[in-house]
Write a structure and sequence with these properties.
alpha+beta; six-stranded antiparallel beta sheet; three-stranded antiparallel beta sheet; 15 helices
Length: 390
C-alpha cells in the first residue's frame, strides 16, 4: 500500500533501535499521530531517558511545515519554566525527518486523570491550574501563544517530591494521538498545521482571527471548568457544534452544570470570566488568572505553586486591553507578519500642547525665560514708539 496505514507504521517502527545525533538510542514508540511519532530513548552518557518527537518523513517535502517545526522548536528551547516540558535539542535525520529531543516524563495527562477520577477537588484543580498559568505566562511574554491547550497537553508528574506537578506540552508542534483524544473530538488543520481542538478553542480562534495570550486563557478556563465539573461548558454532539457554541453560545454556569456542586465563594466568577466571548473581558494575562485563583483560596493554593507564577506584567496588560485582535483580512495580514503588531499603531499620536495643557512645563527657569522675553518685547515697542513720535 502506498501512503496507507501500513506504510506509516513501518516508517515509524523503522526508527526503533537506531541512534540519533550520536547519543540517543531509540527504545520504543510511546505515541503517534498524523504528523509523526514520539519515542522513548536512552542517553547513556547522561544516564537518563528522553522523549524524541519525529516529524513524519513524508512532510520533508513541505518547506512550510519543516520551517515551522524548526522555528517553534527553537522558541521552545528558550523556555525555562519548570512547568514547561524541556526541549534539549532539535535537528534533522538522514532521511530528512525533523526531530526534537525533550525530557521524558512519567505520569498521566490531565485527560486521563479526569476520565478516571471525574471531578477534582477545587483546591487540587486550582493548584494544578496556577502552575500551568506560570508556564503560559513565560511563553506569552516571549511572544508564544500555545493555540492548542487541552487536558491532553497538560501532563501530571512528580518532581522534587511534589505531586501533581504539571508540564505543558506541545506548543503547536504535534498532534495528539487519536487514542488519547476524547471520543468524537476533531483536530482542525489548514495545510497540515494544527490550529486547535473545538472543545477548548476560543471564539476568536474559531473565527480564524489573530490570537494573543487571552485566547490561551479562554482554553485554560474550559480546562478548569471540566476539572471542577467533569463536563464542558457547552452541550454538543459533534465537534463542529462546539465551534458554533464557542462563537455564539452561552456557557452553562458551573452551579447549573452540576446540581449541588459546592465551590469556594468567588471561584465560579473567576472561571466564567476566563470564558467570556470578548477577549477584553477576560483576565488580561495568565499571571492575573493565577492571582485571581489564589485570592479565592488563599490558604489552600500552595506557596510553591504561586512561586512558579511571574508577577503580572502591567505593561503587557495595558497593551492587550488597548489592542484587540484584528478581524478578517486584517488578521491574515498580521499573521503574515509573524503576528507582530505595528509599533506605529501602538504609539500614542503626538500633539502640540495647548495653553491649557496640564503637561505644560512648570519649571521656574522656564517661566523666568518667558518673563524676560516679554520684557524685551515690551522695551522694543517703547523704543519704536519714541522714534516714531520724533
Amino acid at each position: 500500500m502506498r501512503g496507507g496505514k501500513s506504510d506509516s507504521v513501518n516508517a515509524t517502527a523503522s526508527y526503533i533501535g537506531k541512534e540519533i545525533a550520536g547519543q540517543f538510542r531509540i527504545l520504543q514508540r510511546i505515541g503517534s499521530g498524523g504528523m509523526g511519532a514520539v519515542y522513548k530513548a536512552e542517553q547513556p552518557e547522561m544516564n537518563r531517558f528522553v522523549a524524541i518527537k519525529i516529524l513524519h518523513p513524508k512532510y520533508v517535502s513541505r518547506p512550510d511545515l519543516v520551517s515551522r517545526f524548526r522555528r517553534e522548536a527553537r522558541a521552545m528551547s528558550h523556555l525555562s519554566h519548570p512547568n514547561t516540558a524541556r526541549v534539549y535539542m532539535y535537528g534533522q535525520l538522514e532521511d530528512g525527518a525533523c526531530y526534537i529531543v525533550m525530557e521524558y516524563l512519567e505520569g498521566k495527562n490531565l485527560a486521563q486523570i479526569t476520565r478516571a477520577e471525574g471531578m477534582l477537588r477545587p483546591a487540587r484543580a486550582m493548584n494544578i491550574m496556577v502552575q500551568v498559568c506560570g508556564a503560559l505566562e513565560e511563553a506569552h511574554r516571549q511572544g508564544m501563544v500555545h493555540r492548542d491547550l487541552k487536558p491532553e497537553n497538560i501532563f501530571l508528574t512528580s518532581q522534587g517530591g511534589i505531586a501533581d506537578f504539571p508540564k505543558v506540552l506541545d506548543f503547536g508542534l504535534a498532534k495528539v494521538t487519536q487514542r488519547e483524544m476524547r471520543p468524537g473530538s476533531l483536530i482542525l488543520t489548514q495545510e497540515g498545521m494544527v490550529f486547535g481542538t473545538p472543545e477548548f478553542m476560543s471564539p476568536e480562534q474559531a473565527r480564524g482571527q489573530q490570537l494573543d495570550a487571552r485566547s490561551d486563557i479562554y482554553s485554560l478556563g474550559c480546562i478548569l471548568y471540566e476539572m471542577l465539573t467533569g463536563k464542558l461548558p457547552f452541550d454538543a454532539a459533534q465537534p463542529m457544534d462546539y465551534l458554533a457554541l464557542q462563537i455564539r453560545g452561552t456557557p452553562i454556569p458551573l452551579g447549573e452544570r452540576v446540581p449541588n456542586l459546592r465551590l469556594p465563594p468567588g471561584l465560579e466568577g473567576v472561571v466564567m470570566k476566563t470564558i467570556e466571548k470578548e477577549p477584553d473581558k477576560r483576565h488580561p494575562s495568565a499571571a492575573d488568572f493565577a492571582m485571581a485563583l489564589k485570592d479565592v483560596l488563599p490558604d489552600e493554593v500552595r506557596d510553591d505553586a504561586m512561586r512558579s507564577v511571574p508577577k503580572p506584567n502591567d505593561q503587557a496588560r495595558a497593551i492587550a486591553s488597548s489592542n484587540p485582535p484584528p478581524r478578517g483580512k486584517d488578521s491574515q495580514r498580521a499573521a503574515s507578519n509573524g503576528g507582530r503588531s505595528s509599533a506605529r499603531s501602538a504609539a500614542p499620536s503626538a500633539r502640540a500642547p495647548s495653553m491649557g495643557d496640564a503637561s505644560l512645563p512648570q519649571s521656574p527657569l522656564v517661566w523666568a525665560a518667558i518673563g524676560a522675553g516679554g520684557m524685551l518685547l515690551l522695551g522694543g515697542v517703547i523704543v519704536l514708539a519714541v522714534l516714531l513720535l520724533r
